Each structure stands twice: as structure tokens, then as C-alpha cells.
Amino acid sequence: MKIIEVQDEQAGGKVGFDIFKEALANDAQVFGLATGSTPISIYNELTASDLDFSDKISINLDEYQGLAGTHDQSYRYFMDEHLFNQKPFKESYVPNGLAEDMDAETTRYDRLIADHPLDLQLLGLGQNGHIGFNEPGTPFDIQTHVVDLTPSTIAANARFFASEDDVPRRAISMGIGSIMKSKKILLVAYGENKAQAIAAMVEGPVTTDVPASVLQNHDDVTIIVDRSAASKIKNRDLITTIA
Q1: What is the pLDDT of residues 189-199, one digit of tens each?
Q2: Could you tell me which residue ranges the Glucosamine/galactosamine-6-phosphate isomerase domain spans (predicted)?
């Protein structure tokens, strides 16, 4: 793992942008993308740039079950607003939250990922160590699946909705097994509320209790954090600080 500590989210966005730029220079074709507030600074840098993704493919991590892509809290809507409308891809895939047959939808998504191997996967990190919507206890080899969201995840996402009661209780998520097949992984986390999860991911045992800890087993992982998120890492020699 390569851990890069930055001053703030804006600086993290610039570092993340450079990683996307390098991936393009190395002929990356398929980009795994994430939603939430954390990657926005990277998307802002991408949309302001002259990088061209018009012949590339994107595959998103997850989507709420029960929300149409036009719903303003769906992840398809988020991606359109923050990236795709300004920086279109040749093809952009997000799970269908309104699929009538969820088993068929997860199978379709797995086939899609198999047909388009991920060159770079962008991840955020949940306070409980989840990646995508792979909550604690999720098997490391699982593929795309429907998830019952934990109370802590529902509470964390409530800020995006009118109330906690409006947060969907289920989601479709790319599985950890699929994430780990990506050629390169970029995980980004900011703030003191992510510090414990970061420390457990980096220095703790590899355990399904902390889904992100499996990234210790991947050959090419870069982690971007601010000082607050890195504050509980005991071995500071693991960290490269960018002023």
C-alpha cells in the first residue's frame, strides 16, 4: 500500500487527478467509479481538465435499490451531475436500482465486469470499514450482490436525504471479489471520523470485520488521506506527506 497524506480535500483531488491522468497515459480502458462526497474533488479536477474519456468505459460500484436513475439521490444522478454530463465516457454503467429481477441484475453486472476488466478502481471508505456497500461480515470472494444496509451506513447517508427514514434500506453493490480484480485501486478518505477505519485497514489484521482490510492483499493500492484521517496510523513511516 502507498499512503499519501495531503493537507485537504482539494489537494487530494489534485493527487487523485494525477493518478487518473497516469492511468490514461498507460492506456487504461475501464474505470471503476465511486459516489459520495469524498471523490467530488477528484471529479472536479477531471471535469476542469482536457483529459478525454470519450472512448473509455466506466463501471460504478453501487446503486440504491428502489431509486430510479433520475432520482436526485440515486448514484446514476450523482455521476451525471458531477462527472458524466461534463466529461462523457463511451459507455457508463451503474446498477439498475429498479430492476424487477435482482438476481438477474447482479448476474448481468458480473458479466459486464468480466467483459470489461477494471484498470483503475476508485473507492471511498465507510466509518465501519466498508468499501462499496460491502458491509462488515461480507465474504471477500463475493461478486455483485444485494445488500441490507447497516444502521451506521443508513445514518451516515441520511445527510443526503430529507430524513433518515427516506434512506433506502437496500443497495446493489459490486462485490469485494470484483474490486480486488482491478489492476490498480485508489482509495480516498478524509476526516477524523474515518481515522479508525483507516488504521484498521492499514495496520490491523485482514478480516471480514473490516472489509477494506482485504486491500492489504492487493498488489497496487494507493490511499489518499488528510492528516485527520491518518491520525491513528501508528507507523508514520508508512506515510508520504505532500505539503
Answers
A1: 999 999 999 99
A2: 29-221
